[in-house]
Amino acid sequence: MADLLIQINREKGGIAGQIAAELRDAIRGGRLAPGTRLPATRDLAADLQVSRGAVVEAYEQLVAEGFLTSRVGAGTRVAPRTPTAPGAPPASARRDPGSTGVCGGYYGHRPTSPDLAHFPRQGWLAAVRHVLTTVPSDALDYGDPGGVPELREELAGYLCRVRAADVRPENLVVVGGVAQGLSLVLHVLSRECDLSLAVEDPTSINQVPLLRRAGARLVPVPVDEEGLDVRRLAGEAAALVTPAHQFPTGVVLSPSRRAALVEWAHAGGRLVLEDDYDAEFRFDRDPVGCLQGLAPDRVVLSGSVSKALAPGLRLGWVAAPPELAGAIRRARGELDLGSPVVDQYALAHFLRTGGYDRHLRRMRREYRRRRDALAAALSEELPRVRVKGIEAGLHMYLELPDGWTEQEVVRAARELGLSAEPVGPMREFAGPPAVVVGFARLPAHQAAEVVHGLKVRMSGQKIDPGGRLA
Ligand SMILES: Cc1ncc(COP(=O)(O)O)c(C=O)c1O
């Protein structure tokens, strides 16, 4: 068990963040070697004379970032190989001594990432245990490449109930996330035609390589205050949209545009690919059902548990018209024989027993608090920054005031531990300078401090590498 020198400043607040920062530095600097067992939270809290909750929060943050591992019975240890794990700052930020931020935390790799410290470990453990104690051995054989029937049954019920989808289990294919779902759909479609694909502009830059690799020729179409400008669609074979919460602007596709998009698809025998990536998190506006429910024969719906549970689970679904669903399922069988069955049964159990819904309700409340805190701090400290797209999802779209560049804001935000991306590289058409910022991993009580740090950095004042005002 390691004895640790951890120095904290009680007057400064953010005790959990300070403990996490100290441990992170000790691991990076080699003072804590891989495999080292850390003190129990109760002991460390007593040593430092802080609440046990602060130590638990610090450990959980570092587990989420990949610096620590935690197993029942084995305690908390320094991970065998420390990040580059998901959730760790990008390499560019890690080289920067200020990258741990004023609060010592790092709040996510992608602006759309959830807070993995809140992954429902106990519920998931119970689901996996249930699966392993109940499924017959044969269930662990190569399964249906379209997914285990129990999960497709549960997902169909869930999507009809929560997303107003029009789905039956036989229209569903279980996949490894929206990314794989889109790859498979495009892979199938591009074998049949020259696949010109209308994409929203701006769009998720992370998706562009996979769309191209799957055989699509991308045609950017502008997004305005009502979402995709459907009038600018022409003869494309399909359109890829994020109607519930456009990425990155956060705009909701308006009712008239939804109708026009469905009409466009019907008129030309075209397909709409609906990326429903973060639809579970709605805060202030009436629920918006998915587009697929309006036109199940023309819309292919893709979603996943990446925002609701964890991206690392790589579990998602595609709901498609029957013929296309069959082709996707065959392609999955040819390409890699399908998704891991234990996880599929576990998700089915988690859905069936209400664990998924309970987790979502809890996280919706928490993310709403975090969003409110960050939005309030921005409006108080940086009123010239225009905050948009916050009625849903886990990120904000910030339009920048004159004189601020995207790159400078992104650098400053990342130094402060926020996950941020510039919008410029996501566009073909000109638009105002803007950045996307994730709020899911920024605890509400740290929002004011982080925004103050951003203000100070953007006004050119000096900050020492620890993030404190010099
Ligand atoms: C807009 C958008 N679509 C899709 C995805 C990919 O999600 P998945 O993890 O389900 O593949 C992301 C991930 O960040 C995203 O931001």
Automatic annotation (TrEMBL):
**Which sequence ranges are marked TM in the entry?**
none
Region of interest (Disordered), ranges: 77-98
Q: Which UniProt keywords apply?
A: Aminotransferase, DNA-binding, Pyridoxal phosphate, Transcription, Transcription regulation, Transferase
GO molecular function terms noted in the UniProt entry: DNA binding; DNA-binding transcription factor activity; pyridoxal phosphate binding; transaminase activity
- Show where the HTH gntR-type domain sits: 13-81
- Cited SUPFAM superfamilies: PLP-dependent transferases, Winged helix' DNA-binding domain
Q: PANTHER family from the entry?
A: HTH-TYPE TRANSCRIPTIONAL REGULATORY PROTEIN GABR
Family in the record: In the C-terminal section; belongs to the class-I pyridoxal-phosphate-dependent aminotransferase family.
The molecule here is called GntR family transcriptional regulator / MocR family aminotransferase
**Species in which this protein is naturally found:** Nonomuraea wenchangensis
